[in-house]
Specification:
- This is Tetratricopeptide repeat protein.
- The protein has 175 residues and is mostly helical.
- The protein has a domain of 89 residues: Alpha Horseshoe (Serine Threonine Protein Phosphatase 5, Tetratricopeptide repeat).
- It has seven helices and no strands.
- It is elongated, with a radius of gyration of 32 Å.
- The chain starts with a helix and ends with a helix.
Length: 175
């Protein structure tokens, strides 16, 4: 290995994770595959890169590649990587559930968001207008008739205050 290999690995790995976290899965695959070539595949770090690669394959719609890589990872030298590989393989090989269209929420396409925020603001304004209930009319406040309110001293308050003062006095005496 040359002295440039660790830096190249680090750069490719970070670029792959960065692209994955921003939804650019094809770009993430390219970077993660390059990072995988710069590290020993059976090392802990090699397993970590390959787990990210499985996620990128799955997100990009490359299900068969993800399954094949998970099968490799289920025989990895690192116990944790083997365990995660088996768990992911179990999930990827599980039958896909069917859902009715009315159970799903339609998410607008935000791919043009970098070009301008106008579509997003229109969509959010429409959504808010649909969800907002009609405004209620304010009720008239009725003035309080203080002659009907019981304002006499309550004995409980005086007992509570006396108990607090007594407890504070005892506590101050111990200090």
């Amino acid at each position: 290995m040359s002295s440039q290999t660790p830096e190249r690995f680090r750069d490719e790995y970070q670029a792959g994770r960065y692209a994955f976290e921003r939804g650019r899965y094809r770009e993430a695959i390219a970077h993660l595959e390059a990072a995988r070539e710069e590290v020993a595949r059976q090392s802990r770090l090699g397993g970590e890169v390959q787990m990210w690669l499985v996620s990128a394959y799955q997100a990009a719609g490359l299900r068969q590649e993800a399954i094949a890589l998970c099968r490799e990872l289920s025989r990895h030298a690192s116990f944790e990587t083997r365990k995660q590989g088996r768990r992911l393989l179990y999930i990827l090989e599980a039958p896909e559930l069917t859902t009715r269209p009315d159970w799903l929420v339609k998410i607008p396409d935000l791919s043009d968001m970098e070009q301008g925020e106008s579509k997003v603001s229109q969509l959010s304004a429409e959504a808010v207008a649909k969800r907002r209930p009609p405004k209620k009319q304010k009720r008239e406040e009725v003035p309080i008739d203080w002659s009907e309110v019981n304002t006499e001293d309550n004995r409980f308050i005086w007992i509570a205050i006396a108990a607090i003062v007594l407890l504070l006095g005892i506590w101050a005496g111990w200090s």
